[in-house]
Design brief:
It contains 8 helices and 6 strands. It is an alpha/beta fold. It has a single domain, classed as Uracil-DNA glycosylase-like domain (Uracil-DNA Glycosylase, subunit E), CATH 3.40.470.10.
Length: 231
């Protein structure tokens, strides 16, 4: 099992965590980090952009929208410490990509094998809604990560925002309409598999159920090479 320690990914990570390119996002992430949610009042918030996380030899890339204000923006790791992350890492564990089903904080022992998790926008945005300019300013980090992750065979996009960004980066033309379970085979590139985002809005209303979400990662596993045996 591996962390994202390959030199190219490490260089991108260093740039991500020091980025201050979007004034609105910088102000919001830092405000949230000081005006904490009561349930996390004793936590020291990360309050910076959140880099990607996972295996440099990944065959699966999972792309979300942006860090949650009291999730990744608090813990410093993508999809960590929030309910959406509970869904993501539970599904990755079931599909054999993660050594445990939970992602609570950095240093909790979580490691990914064959998978890497990232987001289109790296700072927590107000109301979970980055502007088009913020998206376009930030998406270059994802582009560079995708270039470094040379073994990726499948990209799972969580939500329409992530799907549109990934489709643009991969030059998908024409672009099929987003929908849960939609697959797009990119000539000379990975297969994109779409999923509804595991936001509370979707999971509480059962627009997205656990079996539906698990099926996406079962399909991703079927399209990717088997992981190496544990060392």
């Amino acid at each position: 099992m591996h962390e994202a320690s390959a030199p190219g990914l490490a260089a991108i990570t260093a740039e991500v965590v020091s980025c201050r390119a979007c004034p609105r996002l910088v102000a919001w992430r830092e405000r949230v980090a000081t005006q904490k949610r009561a349930s996390f009042a004793g936590d020291e918030y990360w309050g910076r952009p959140v880099p990607g996380f996972g295996d440099p030899a990944a065959s699966l890339l999972v792309v979300g929208l942006a860090p949650a204000a009291h999730g990744g923006n608090r813990t410093g790791r993508v999809f960590t410490g929030d309910r959406s992350g509970d869904w993501v890492f539970r599904a990755l564990h079931k599909a054999g990509y993660a050594n445990q089903a939970t992602s609570v904080h950095v240093g909790d022992g979580l490691a990914l094998t064959g998978a890497y998790v990232a987001a289109v926008v790296r700072c927590a945005p107000p109301d979970n809604k980055p502007t088009p300019l913020e998206r376009d300013t930030c998406v270059g980090y994802l582009r560079r990560e995708m270039d470094e992750l040379a073994s990726v065979a499948v990209v799972v996009t969580l939500g329409g925002f992530a799907y549109e960004a990934v489709a643009r980066l991969l030059g998908v033309r024409p672009r099929p309409r987003f929908g849960h379970g939609v697959e797009v085979a990119v000539a000379g590139g990975p297969t994109v598999v779409c999923s509804y985002h595991p936001s509370q809005q979707n999971t509480f209303t059962r627009r997205l159920t656990e079996p539906m979400f698990d099926a996406v990662f079962t399909r991703a596993r079927a399209l990717t090479p088997d992981p190496p045996p544990p060392s």
